[in-house]
Write a structure and sequence with these properties.
The chain has 372 residues and is an alpha+beta fold. It is 35% helix and 26% strand. It is built from eleven helices and 21 strands. Strands 1, 2, 8, 9, 10, 11, 19 and 20 form an eight-stranded mixed beta sheet that branches. Strands 5, 6, 12, 13, 14, 15, 16 and 17 form an eight-stranded mixed beta sheet that branches. A three-stranded antiparallel beta sheet has the order 3-7-4. It is globular and about 60 Å long.
């Protein structure tokens, strides 16, 4: 470990997208940055691989523009249930972007290295203390320590930041299929026991994810509960292995203590149903770098809570439909009859509309549920 410095400005523990975003934002403000992760890139994770418009913009603010050859745009969201469907487009001139997680990680790694961040792969962090970050028997002194090591964060435990709401976890699985995209929308398929998500990541591949409360429900079984999605994939070749992960909503009482701050899933989770996990981490990174530059992390707590409020609220709202087929059908009926309501909810979801403007539409939706 001769290449490891004795002191550093910012030590980022975890080299996934959240950690790399923190490293990039910190380097852009002139900090000396070191990132350590126990695995070798590219780092993959089960996710829907779609960046909503606000997440795409947050990524571009970090100086990362995904080449069209490595991505696929989508223009809106479609909900599909038994015998019903409703769709809404993003605001004019706005679009989402689907990109393979491994491709995104490669681009972010290149950007961090280009800016001069030091990247230590296959390097296990064994603890943190008042002296610094422990790499086995070596200690690196750091002005700031960033925990970006995921939902089971050890940094969070080491810093005493584990207190918070206990998430009601769901189980998510993902696989890619070789099939031409059939829509320019990200699709959410609602079933009685699960949700399916389909997002084209290229002109010949679609990412399919499944989420449920049943830890034993795998993709193949889940697709049988979603016949419309299963029909879309009939005869399609699976081109990646099934990969699983946990998802859910979790809010922590605090996301910083002393010189330690948490980011990404380490700092709390939003359910994958929102599609906002990555975009949220990218926005957190920009705020965290600003707070480190000012020398005070207290403001990060306030801004972190503000950033998470909308995705958490939207996740709770959407999960009301979970395992309630009658409510799913009535909601889609309202969205079909009043497409402007669905459009405004989507605008709220991507941060293009103030919650004040949605109150009227919420009342319209509520009335529609009784009269549909």
């Amino acid at each position: 470990m001769s290449q490891v410095p004795d002191t550093i400005d910012v030590f980022v523990i975890g080299g996934g997208p959240a950690g790399l975003a923190a490293a990039i934002a910190a380097r852009e403000r002139g900090f000396r940055v070191l990132v350590a992760d126990g695995v070798q890139p590219p780092i993959d994770k089960a996710c829907g691989e779609g960046l909503l418009p606000d997440g795409r913009v947050a990524l571009e603010r970090l100086g990362i523009h995904v080449p069209i050859a490595e991505s696929h745009p989508f223009r809106g969201i479609r909900f599909v249930s038994d015998g019903l469907s409703a769709d809404a487009r993003f605001p004019e001139d706005s679009y989402g972007l689907a990109v393979r997680r491994t491709s995104l990680h490669h681009l972010m790694t290149e950007r961090a290295a280009e800016l001069g961040a030091s990247l230590l792969w296959r390097t296990a962090v064994t603890g943190i203390s008042a002296q610094g970050v422990h790499l086995g028997d070596r200690v690196v002194r750091a002005r700031w320590i960033v925990g970006a090591d995921g939902s089971n964060s050890r940094v969070r435990r080491w810093a005493g930041l584990d207190r918070g709401s206990r998430p009601r976890l769901r189980y998510a699985f993902r696989r890619h299929y070789r099939v031409a995209p059939w829509t320019d929308h990200m699709e959410v398929y609602w079933g009685g026991s699960c949700q399916g998500y389909a997002t084209a990541v290229s002109r010949e591949q679609v990412c399919v994810a499944l989420a449920s409360h049943d830890s034993n429900l795998r993709l193949e079984d889940g697709l049988r509960a979603l016949p419309k999605l299963q029909a879309r994939l009939a005869g399609a070749e699976a081109v990646s292995a099934e990969r699983g992960a946990l998802t859910g909503n979790r809010r922590l009482a605090r996301v910083w203590r002393g010189n330690v701050a948490l980011i990404g899933d380490a700092s709390g989770m939003v359910d994958a149903i929102t599609g906002e996990g990555l975009g949220l981490a990218f926005s957190q990174a920009a705020v965290l770098a600003e707070c480190m530059e000012s020398g005070h992390l207290g403001h990060y707590q306030t801004e972190h809570r503000k950033l998470a409020l909308r995705p958490l609220c939207m996740a709770r709202l959407m999960l009301i439909l979970d395992r309630r087929p009658w409510l799913q059908n009535r909601t889609l009926q309202v969205f079909q009859k009043r497409p402007e309501v669905f459009r405004r909810f989507l605008e709220l979801h991507v941060g293009a509309l103030s919650p004040v403007h949605v109150v009227r539409d919420g009342l319209t939706l509520g009335w529609g549920l009784f009269t549909a």
